[in-house]
Amino acid sequence: MKNHSFVSKVKGSIWSKMNNFGIRLPFALIWYFTRYIRQKYWLLFYRSIGKFGFRKIGKNVAIDGRVEFIWPCADIRIANNVRIGKRCVFQGSPSSVIQISKNVTVNDGCYITSMFSIEIGKGTSIGEYTSIRDYNHKFDNPSTPIKNQDYFGSKIVIEEDCWIGRGCIILPGVTIGKGAVVGANSLVNKDVSPYTIVGGIPAKFIKNR
């Protein structure tokens, strides 16, 4: 019986990957070259003129496009070999730290905002348009407009080698354990055990890896 499961043909060294393009290789090389130039441009920008956005940028960092900052001079630290996608938004307060460890990928359109602390462990991948927010509005006093009340929240930790699917929402106080997988469009409002797969609104245990 024929196996219809998908297996990528693009594997092995960079040269074997290039070989898969066949006669389209020149066009692929032009595309990769222009992307490389664009990434270097944005990296240079955030190391110089835009240095009041990121407190620290490691080596071999790739920034695919413009990053928006809600407040300047926040303590946002990016380690080595990190890739930041296009249209990402970061917000940090003077008292919080956003730490993105090495080999992390933050894909397009992600929103990471902190008043307490957010840590993303090494090797983790964050899917497009995911929101990671460690605080929220208080709303316990109905006689006061919500926007005039204070905030509450606590630290978010995403440990190493996690995969957060596209469009997820990670709420304050959550720890996502090492090697966990969060399905696309999930809302994570409680801790996720290591090496488990969760999904849904709110996210629930599906199975162990």
Q: Would you kindly provide a brief summary of this structure?
A:
With 209 residues, the chain is an alpha/beta fold. Helices cover 14% and strands 30% of the residues. It has helices at 14-19, 25-47, and strands spanning 56-57, 62-63, 68-69, 75-78, 83-84, 89-92, 97-100, 105-106, 111-114, 117-120, 125-126, 131-133, 135-137, 151-153, 156-158, 163-164, 169-170, 175-176, 181-182, 187-188, 196-199, 204-208.
Question: Overview of this structure, please?
Answer:
By secondary structure, the protein is α/β, with parallel strands linked by helices. 14% of the residues lie in helices and 30% in strands. It contains two helices and 22 strands. The protein has helices at 14-19, 25-47; strands at residues 56-57, 62-63, 68-69, 75-78, 83-84, 89-92, 97-100, 105-106, 111-114, 117-120, 125-126, 131-133, 135-137, 151-153, 156-158, 163-164, 169-170, 175-176, 181-182, 187-188, 196-199, 204-208. The strands form four sheets. Strands 2-5-8-11-16-19-21-22 form an eight-stranded mixed beta sheet. A hairpin with a 4-residue loop joins strand 21 (196-199) and strand 22.
